Give the backbone structure.
Amino acid sequence: MQKPLQSVQKWLMYLWPGLLSLGFIALILGFAFNGLFSEITNIDLTRIFQNNYLFRVIGFTFFQAALSTLLATLVAIPVARALARRPTLPGRQIFVQLASLSLIIPTIVGVFGIVAIHGRNGWLNQFLSLFDVNAGNYLYGLTGILIAHVFFNAPLLSRIFLQSLEALPPEYWRNTAQLGMTGKDIFRLIEWPLLRRIIPASCGLVFLLCFTSFAVVLALGGGPSTNTLEVAIYQAIRFDFDIPKAVILSLAQLSLCFILLIIGSKFARHITLQKTEERSIQRLDARHTSAKITDSLALLVMVFLVIPPLLATIWKAFSPRLITIITDEKLWIASFNSLLISLTAGCIALILAIGIALMLRSLQSPYRLGRHSLASSFATMTDLSGSIILLLPPFVLATGLFITFRAATSLTILAPFLVIIVNALMTLPFILRILVPAFETSAQKSDHLCDNLDINGLNRIRIIDWPQNRKALGLALGLSVALSTGDLSVIALFGTQDFTTLPLLMFQKMGSYRLDDAAITALFLCLQSLMLFIFIERTISGKGFSLSTLRTSRKAMHCA
Amino acid sequence: MILRTTMAAVAATTLTLGLSLNAQAQEQDKKVLTVYTYDSFAADWGAGPKVEEAFEANCGCDLKFVALDSSVGILSRLKLEGEDSTADVVLGLDTNLTAEASATGLFAKSNVDVSNVDLPIDWKDEQFIPFDYSYFAFVYDSEKLANPPASLDSLINGNPDLKIIIQDPRSSTPGLGLMMWIQNVYGDKSADAWEKISPKIVTVTKGWSEAYGLFLDGEADMVLSYTTSPAYHIIAEEKKQYKAAIFSEGHYMQVEVAAQLKTAKEPELAQEFLNFITTSGFQNEIPTGNWMYPVIDLGKDLPATFSQLPRPDKSLLFSPEEVKNNRQIWIDNWLDSINQ
């Protein structure tokens, strides 16, 4: 039996990094709410609730999120199957890498590419006009939102599905071949039961992303009838400066999604957004003609959905104005601001996430605190609170913080800090999903060994933790920096022409309908985000920049 | 390694932040007048740069336009910043917003002599001074649309295939103007009118620039703009096919205004700028920069095209107080009934 004091000490020893992180987050949230509530003097609840608009917005938000998730899943499953059973398909490697980048492509760039393809004068209509067909103006409104959401989420989902399908033991496929199972049987007996287990968590994530979608809906929504809650919150602050309304809408969003999260957490499994290992498995069912047809169809749909918008953006960027824009001081200032903001936000997010991940690994590892009854509920709470940040509208948070600090200094000085802090918090849920599982696995592997050999403190970090986790850390920081580079939320609220980031500059150019200039900015933004991601990820993971990784994986494939 | 990276990043951040603050400090030797306005006024092709040049020629100061993404956005930004705003002058609200703006208590008396102002209405406001005016109208390309509607009624009830683009009344003054226009003509039946017009709306944009750009790109048959917009195509592009449809019910009028903030850091400069607004130095830039009517008689300096533009037979306008008392209710109703 331990003495209570020792037990407290032990808890503190394991948990202090996480408590620091959580304390910092709580402090920020506290400041934000303090600001918001100081602005609320009287709430006219009847005005807000009597209006059908609120209920229509909630209804539409649910509807579009559910439909987007469903469509993305329907596209992703056949694509994942096709890729899983054809490991030697030409271009597969590129496709898989492109798919993992879909999180990194800034939303506003994707939206721009989609307009270039699907707009009234887009490539699709131009192509159709060759046959005297006019698809007309179908983009603005629900169609546009769905296209964009599928564009962003189908690759992400197919990536996750592919990863789990590839994790199935190769013996399965030998057995199916021996038993002469058809593609249908394999799907029914092997693939679907597996997918069914990961669908709730992965599709839940996609649902939340679509539920809180902002830039897509703002640019393609086309009016109040296709507003999501997130956009309505932005409008309440930006247009009406109606803080009570914004707070109530945020509470509605929070509580609705929280209920969904609770329901979802019953089925929850960890999703890891890590790179797939290449391996070669003979799949006899892939040789069937019907399988060839369905797989080609699935891949074609995916390629036609994802590739043209990116191509169109690049194509449009090479316009006569390229030199003018590239040499424009404004672009470079915006690029520099984006760089500063994304690096700082990324580092803050990483530090916060490391704290939380360290705490969770101590709470979940049976060798540490995992056996304590409080630990698991504490872990679930922390896990949930990570996801809740995803549901907090960044505008409300930033406005609250601004109101708290506005007396101290001007918006010009505060704006960069607000953007950094809120961006850091917003990317936290994503990188937690990478760090937490990685830290847990590494702790389970090494805790006993380290105790036996008495490796602890800095030595343990240097010899054990850093080499084991640098891959995850690199991916996390890279992702977080790339996400903040492409972020258009708080900056849309506080940006002026004196303080722009690349996404805002691009949005302004789209707003004043200078599409050529917007395309060039888009390409620039995309390159910056990608290069930062690749550079950070490679440097920290210690991969270097050679093609060696590619070669090793090819070798592995040949051996198999 | 990670520690080193983090340290390097922190050091770089502090250094650059310091540098940029330092750079800002050096520019501040000259007095700076900060004017909040909307994007198309401050744009390179708008009236802003020319006005800036004309004013800076005499004031020995630096006139800085802060462009916000929409006109109503100026007011909400001021409400957000409150008394800590960096703005000295606000340029680009209109009479639909003046009562609400002055209720914030943020605006100072204008002290500008408006006796030379030549507007279709009497000007009595003590805080806001007019800087241009025009009438809201739907603009169309006469080469593509041969029979434009001749009244608001036929726009609403006529040709079901007609596609229009409008702006959001919550963010943009033209959007707000159209809402007032329909309110003024249809009164209690406005909700019906909006429901009927909804299927014709391609998209509701945040500001004027985006809507007009979409229209020029062929995304709709008509766009909500001003009776003076065709002047741009005639003068700047020598294109005569763009016309404003004149409606028999009359047109809602817009008078755009400017005012000084009580908390202005440079009150003297702000006053000087307000006085400058009603002189020809500012007003000369309005017709061919902002494509609106000037508020003083420019004589022969007004391009001939402007006197040839069709003017509506009847101009409609609510008083600022009427708008203030009803704007929120009308917007709620608009949100309720628009459903495209």
Observations:
- The mean pLDDT of chain A is 82.
- Chain A has two domains: 1-38+318-544, 53-314.
